Amino acid sequence: MGHVLEIRGIKKRFPGVRALDWSENDVVRMGPGESWALAGENGAGKSTLTHILSGVYQKDGGEVLLQGKPYAPATVKDAWRAGVAEVLQEPGLIPSLTVAENLFVGREDRFTRFGIHQKRLLYKLAEEAMGDVCPHIDPRALASQLSLEDQKLVELSRALSLDPVLLIIDETSAALSRQSVQVLFDKMREVQRAGGVVIFVSHRFEEMFEHSEHLLVLKDGGFVTTRKTTETTPDQLSGLMVGREVATSKLREHPLGAADGPPLLEVRDLTSAGSFEGVSFEVRAGEILGIGGLAGAGQEEVLKCLFGDAPVTSGDVFLRGEKVDIKAPRDAIAMGFAYAPRNRDREGIILNHTIRENASLPSLPRMQRYGFIDRRREEASARQLISELMIKCQGPGDLCGNLSGGNRQKVVLARWVASDAKVLLLDNPTRGVDVGAKTEIYALLNTLTKKGIGIVMVSDELPELLQMSDRIIILRRGRISAEFTWEQNPTEHDIIGTMI
Amino acid sequence: MQRLKAFVPYLAFAIIFLIFAATSFDRFVTVRNFSIILQQAAVLAVVAFGMHFVITMGSIDLSVGSVLAFAGMVGAGVAVEHGIWGIPVGVLVGALMGLFNGLVYTYLKVPSFIVTLGTLLIGRGLTIIYSRSNPIPTDPALDFLGSYPSILYVTLAVFVIAYILYNYTAFGRYAISIGGDERVSRLSGVPVDRIKVAVFLFSGLLAGLGGVMMASRLGAATPTTGASFELTAISAVVLGGTPLTGGVGNLQNTVIGAVITAMLSNGLVILGVSSEVQQVITGLILIGAVFISLERGKIGIIK
Fold first, then answer.
1. What was the ipTM of the complex prediction?
2. Rounded to two decimals, what is the model's pTM?
3. Which chain A residues in 255-314 lie under 8 Å from chain B, judged by CB atoms?
4. Which site from B5, B139, B189, B223 is most exposed, i.e. has the minimal number of CB atoms within 10 Å?
5. Is A348–B2 a contact, with Cβ atoms under 8 angstroms apart?
6. Which homologous superfamily does the CATH classification assign to the domain defined by A265-499?
């Protein structure tokens, strides 16, 4: 039997970057019914490859064969026609169209009779398409009204409705709740059973090992190797990805938090109507408090409220024993709070500004002399941060948009290191960050806590929550459902039990 | 290509210069003609500096032509009785109109495009009401603002101040960062609302100053002065390579943009091109400049 997909010597350049640069002999062949996980750090070329296969980007060189025929889609629609469907990392729906219109965008003929769009037929088709993936979603709703998770489910329904021979799932599971992730994996398996190929990108190792049969390892745009998943261990894979073995346990020393004196941060009965209720906790200097919960349990909003970015309905916040009133991010920053939001590229840094400009933005008032920005000091501070945080770049003048995800996250953190923050509010600090940079970010957090900084870390990744937190609280539907101390040493199982 | 973009203003300058020099050398390339071009560019540059801040912040100010007219008219009117006091009063009028733009845009959350379009009409109406449709000759006390070469010194002084504000103060940096990403700026502690108001106030203030300069240069404030001047100012900024998408831009290139714009209209007049055809050519060049300067990779979708 022939291969479904063959990729050979593929190349793609962006201004100044070789995003994909395989040699002529590098080839991967994917057979019917196989599932392939793409493994590699950020900047390895995983997303570039999925985008080329989906018709978003066009390759500059090399060869791609789909069912034996040359395959070079110029648009996403071309890819669909060839039987390639995708759910990519970035939003794939048009916000101003309804769910149903999005499902059949480009396939209007399916519900057109005598040149007129038949709405009733469209909604019927849409309901069929969403059938067992997301029957709870109203096909008449606007895409912009859906949660991120629901949007991804609609995209998945659309991809499946194309009966794909090649299904591409790029970093989608990160946006999904546990139940939806299960649906995703079931559907992937169905595509395989029908003889299709699934290409799967995830930063979660457990998912890669559980749901792929083959691994395609990439590094810095180049091809490394292909492996059978069952014949590879996570540590081996990490080694292949970064070129060295990465330890995957014990990321935190025993908590150093000072036991006496008032806590650095104390939150009492904090409530934000519609998001969370009666949340109380304290964080000591040098401590990392982890907050876990299912998507939408209110953990993201707790951080926003502490940073003055969401309205507090009631409750008190004390900083070093003193009651504080935070109305806007500006107030919070002045008091020593820092916030690294979940959506890094849209809320964390300005992509078309330089590292220097991004790094100094929150601390600009302190970079001034006689009311003027001290450029030399700003530049020196940026250089120091780059070396301290090991940000991979050519210099402070690099645009942040040209950095990889991990390095962007380091710039976000660098801004707050520079601003001398006392309390770090981190929302998924290593989301979309590769293994190597992840380790470096954890090391940075450890260093910061040694300096007496307190960290509140929301994380959707259980291993991160377990490995990096000194204490963990779990939110369930906006209320604290459990608290785990370091001594209790909870397992993933213990934690999941309290989330649901 | 990225490198090339940085040179676009200079390249455009060179090409336009060479075309006019080649077609009518003896009338175009003279000291006297250059001084005329610079005088025309001077007022434009002052207004364009304010526009540069607004555009870099990701907004637009369509009111500057009318603000210029009204401020010039009030300035000239006050100068009739109070001489030199016409200048600060004219500038103040401009600043107040800018403040109005900024407050409505920022706190009532009306898009800057619409607010300033409204102010464009308001300013023009007020100019006609104030002047009863008659021109007001300017008092000699204002002469230094509009005569050559002192007009250039005034523009130079404004440039130096604007340059420092833009590159070396938190005010300028914050305006640029708001244009880069407003949400990130807010979460970084940038006083977004205050900066927005201040930038529009600054643009109005410079349009006001430009109004008094223009009145002085022409010897009178007339009700039609500065009609469609907002478009000229926007094209000066755009020809200077500043994308309308905000977040980036060089103030010094806006000077080049202003000179190109002035040189273009001057050269076309010398060539005897009718004003209608001039408008067509100016429009085409504006579109061309946006085509080259826009950083499409950073916006993704063009609306």
1. 0.85
2. 0.76
3. 307, 309
4. B5
5. no
6. P-loop containing nucleotide triphosphate hydrolases (3.40.50.300)
